[in-house]
Amino acid sequence: MTRIDVMRPWLGAEEIAAVTAALESGWIAQGPRVAEFEKAFASRMGVEHAVAVSSCTTGLHLALVVAGIGPGDDVVVPSFSFIATANAVRYVGARPVFADVDRITGNIDADTVKTVLTPNTRAVIAVDQGGVPVGLDDLRRVTDPLGIVLIEDAACGAGANYRGRPVGVGSDIAAWSFHPRKILTTGEGGMVTTDRATWADRARALREHATSKSAASRHQDTLPAAESYTEVAYNYRMTDLQAAVGLVQLGRLDEVVARRRELAAKYRAALESVPGLRCVADPDDGEGNFQSFWVEVGPDAAHTRDGYLRELASRDISARRGIMATHLQPAYAGSDAVVGDLTVTEHLTSSTLILPLFHAMSENDHGRVVEVMASRS
Ligand SMILES: *Cc1c(COP(=O)(O)O)cnc(C)c1O
After folding, report:
1. Of 189, 151, 187, residue with least CA distance to 167
2. The pLDDT of residue 226
3. Is the distance from CB of 352 to CB of 296 less than 8 angstroms?
4. How far is Cα 285 from Cα 270, in angstroms, rounded to an integer?
5. At what angle do helices 240-271 and 363-374 cross, to 10 degrees?
6. Which of 46, 102, 190, 329 is deepest in the core (most CB within 10 A)?
7. What is the DSSP letter of 324?
8. Which residues are catalytic?
9. What does the CA dihedral 247, 248, 252, 254 come to, rounded to 10 degrees?
10. Pocket flag, ligand 1, residue 85 (CB < 6 Å)
11. Backbone angles phi, psi at 151, to 5 degrees
12. Atom 1 of ligand 1 has which residue's CA nearest to it?
């Protein structure tokens, strides 16, 4: 019996050839392939500008900086998310205010956000949690009249659609992740997308020490250029080695998402009628990419959530506890973050688990997982 991983990136000969070509070209740091990847990503996601960065975490940081968020500001975030979402708010000295999530989608919504707004709320970070598109139109009805910036943490969102368009389109600015746990990977890496040229330009400068001359433009010069640094900024660059992989992966995205949706539909069909289990599904107004196929374990189920994890582990199947609750982490104990009623968040984080799902998953492996989950003993 071979081990079944919870996630495995789908990489092949084309990625290897692309990295080799980048190495042979001599451009290994940020260069022409990063620029090409940005153009291709913007075009695929239906946005005006894409700025490649070193991760989604650094992308969220830049999004908050260019949106003008800083000390004294409140930013609404879900606690039910990877900790990076809230951490980015603290990087800029603003205060995270945790909103609860909808039990069915695992996402924040207009109701949970409305109840936590303060006079200092300047931004909301909406997460497409696990690749389930967040309901941006409803959120906008709350944020727009108040002039609140809507930032999207689309770390998990590549290939997911909201109202017939890629996620990320409906927010003011979005950040994406290319970590191997996500659907499209460059090893480490991220992207910031926005339709606002001034925000994109500033993010582009901030990722590279706010230099007046990028490395790529310096390379064109024969006479050494006199560059200046317009503000204190960061090194959040992506490398051309990563972008070379990203370009190939972007070309595979539709195929990967189609396969994930197929495997997810099979899980749902097999587990739908098992007492006590509820599987993640598409929301009414979008199609997810099933980056995380999570299952809520109720009181009628054969095992507890942790019992299922043990059963799966004993058969060499690697599953995961559900999405974390940031407010319960030691990093947030005694912090200034605002913690209100997070009943659904605490319920979901303790009652859900994530099942293996990856592109090359065999029917046999899929069947092995279903067998454990559907068993009555
Ligand atoms: C993975 C993830 C991140 C962090 O992405 P990195 O690219 O690893 O920095 C942020 N937010 C969410 C919701 C994530 O799932």
Report:
1. 151
2. 80
3. yes
4. 24
5. 50
6. 190
7. -
8. 182
9. 10
10. yes
11. -100, 140
12. 155
Q: Are 42 and 185 in contact (CB under 8 A)?
A: no
H helices of the chain, in order, are: 13-25, 32-45, 56-66, 84-91, 110-114, 136-143, 197-206, 215-220, 240-271, 305-314, 343-351, 363-374
Q: Collapsing DSSP states into helix, strand and coil, what is residue 224? A: coil
Would you say 112 and 101 are in contact if contact means Cβ atoms under 8 Å apart?
Answer: yes
Look up residue 47 and give its two tokens.
């946005």
Give 102-119 pLDDT, tens digit per residue.
999 999 999 999 999 999
The whole-number pLDDT of residue 367 equals 97
pTM: 0.97
Please give the structure tokens belonging to residue 271: 């587990």
| Cα–Cα distance list, 69 to 13, 75, 142, 150, 298 (Å) | 43, 8, 18, 12, 40
Q: What is the pLDDT of residue 344?
A: 98
Per-residue CA distances from 217 to 11, 31, 99, 247, 376 (Å):
32, 9, 44, 22, 64
Could you state, in chain order, the average pLDDT of each consecutive group of 10 residues for the chain (377 residues)? Answer: 92 97 96 98 98 98 98 98 98 98 98 98 98 98 98 98 97 98 97 98 97 76 81 97 98 98 98 97 97 97 98 97 98 95 98 97 97 91
pLDDT confidence of residue 320: 97
210 Cβ neighbours under 8 A, 6+ residues apart:
229, 230, 231, 232, 233
Q: How far is the CA of 311 from the centre of ligand 1 (A)?
A: 28
Distance between CA 33 and CA 240 in Å, rounded?
A: 5
Amino acid at 42: A
Going by C-alpha positions, the residue among 107, 97, 163 that lies closest to residue 327 is 97
| CA nearest to 191, candidates 203, 208, 209 | 203
CA of 3 to the centre of ligand 1 (A): 25
**Phi, psi values for residue 354, rounded to 5°:** -110, 125
Binning the chain into helix, strand and coil, the percentages to the nearest 5 are 40, 20, 40
- Ligand 1 pocket member 155 (CB < 6 A): yes
